[in-house]
Amino acid sequence: MAQAAQINVLDISTRLRVEHDKKRRQFSIRLNGSHDKAVLLYEYVGKKTVDLQHTEVPEAYRGREIAKHLAKAAMDFVVEEDLKAHLTCWYIQKFVKENPHPQYLERILH
Q1: Mean pLDDT, residues 79-100 taken together
Q2: What is the pLDDT of residues 21-74, one digit of tens each?
Q3: Cα(79)–Cα(44) distance, rounded to whole angstroms?
Q4: Confidence (pLDDT) at 53
Q5: Is 16 exposed, middle or buried (0-12, 13-18, 19+ CB in 10 A)?
Q6: Where do the N-acetyltransferase domain residues begin and end?
Q7: CA distance linking residue 30 with residue 18, whole number of Å
Q8: Structural domains for the chain
């Protein structure tokens, strides 16, 4: 039974596509083709500085590493755009702690 659940998690994560809406300042993932979506919100707080503020995954989809995909996309955006970032969101703080890549760490403002 546990093995089936593990396969299900992997199947879901391989089908995820993160969309970046720069106008609305959010990363999102549509979940199973439904209207449900997971989001990561950010704001510019300076010309080259963003505040990664909030990550939300609908309760029915939690525990499937969906937020991890959003956090990675957001941190990759920070790197690609050569930005600095405040990590207000606790989940992104956790993600960076678990994935302490130098290109992420050098862009975090404390």
Answers
A1: 97
A2: 999 999 999 997 668 899 999 999 999 999 999 999 999 999 999 999 999 999
A3: 15
A4: 98
A5: middle
A6: 19-109
A7: 8
A8: 2-109 (3.40.630.30)
